[in-house]
UniProtKB/TrEMBL annotation:
Pfam families: Sulfotransfer_1
Enzyme Commission number(s) from the entry: 2.8.2.-
Similarity remark: Belongs to the sulfotransferase 1 family.
Molecular function GO terms recorded: sulfotransferase activity
Keyword NADP applies: no
Database matches in InterPro entries: P-loop_NTPase, Sulfotransferase_dom
Protein name: Sulfotransferase
Assigned keywords, A-Z: Transferase
Presence of the UniProt keyword Nucleotide-binding in the record: no
Xref: Gene3D superfamilies: P-loop containing nucleotide triphosphate hydrolases (3.40.50.300)
Domain annotation Sulfotransferase: ranges: 19-249
Top-level taxon of origin: Eukaryota
Length: 265
């Protein structure tokens, strides 16, 4: 899941366009969900799918940057990069960016199962071992806390909109409306209802074999809020609370995450 050194350097020559869309996430915060939402929305407005198939900016071979630079608009990209590693042209062109956040406890549980069931990632013999690496930021893609803090200073930028997994789950239709308005994709209520029905968890899980092959059930596991309660010990929960307090509680992004609602018993 890590970006190769060559691809990382090749990204310096990436040419963003004003018409692009970017989805920024820490892994397991709902990346594939929002990619599908954007594909559906772009399809309605442009009558064609976005041209980029392998959407994750930093994955793949360095040569793909050239192909992406030549691909026709509209393009939808996603990334797990820290803010400071995003190619500068995304900011120069004020590319509309959705920052998708999820509470750190559910994110950890999702990441643990994903790591153990995805053959390209390291397997963990136990949850306790994974938890230790996660808290210390030693999992692939680095620390949840550093990643989130890196985006925190920019959540008021006009071209960046933060949204949480939890808000999307609990008030999906209104959040779809918010997304379409922010992206300048004005879908009718009727079209938004269709996007909603195609991208709710149940629909995406049912189609996951077609969209994600053998990893379908791994990417679309439970899609719930609060699964952390099934696996965290009391002391792990307290340790995560302290880490959150130290790294994010004082930041505006900490407020957006609504930690006390989703991560306290
Ligand atoms: P769980 O493992 O908790 O089920 P990513 O796409 O960033 O890898 O995130 C994967 C997580 O998002 C998984 O969480 C997955 O089930 C959840 N997810 C994917 N699509 C979803 C949807 N339409 N609604 C709710 N959750 C979804």
């Amino acid at each position: 899941m890590m970006c190769s050194e060559e691809t990382f350097h090749a990204l310096e020559s990436f040419e963003a366009r004003e018409s692009d869309f970017l989805i920024a996430t820490y892994p397991k915060c709902g990346t594939n969900w929002v990619i599908q939402i954007l594909h559906e929305m772009v399809f309605y407005i442009n009558n064609k799918e976005p041209s980029i198939v392998q959407a994750m900016l930093e994955f793949g071979r360095p040569e793909k940057i050239q192909t992406q630079n030549e691909a026709p608009s509209p393009r939808v990209f996603s990334t797990h990069l820290y803010y400071d590693n995003i190619p500068k042209s995304f900011f120069e062109k004020k590319v509309k960016t959705l920052l998708i956040l999820r509470n750190p406890k559910d994110t950890a549980v999702s990441f643990f199962h994903f790591s153990n069931n995805n053959p390209v990632l390291p397997s963990y013999g136990s949850w306790d071992l994974f938890f230790k690496d996660y808290i210390e930021g030693k999992v692939c893609s680095g620390s949840y806390f550093d990643h989130t803090a890196s985006w925190s200073k920019h959540i008021d930028d006009e071209h960046i909109m933060p949204l949480t997994f939890e808000d999307m789950k609990l008030d999906y239709f209104n959040n779809l409306k918010k997304i379409s308005k922010f992206l300048g994709l004005s879908l009718s209520e009727e079209q938004l209802k269709i996007v909603e029905s195609k991208t709710v968890f149940k629909s995406m899980k049912e189609k996951s074999g077609d969209t994600h092959g053998k990893l379908g059930n791994v990417f679309f596991r439970k899609g719930e809020i609060g699964d952390w309660k099934s696996i965290f010990s009391e002391s792990q929960s307290k340790e995560m609370d302290a880490k959150f307090e130290e790294c994010l509680a004082g930041e505006r992004i900490g407020e957006i995450l609504n930690y006390s609602r989703y991560c306290k018993n």
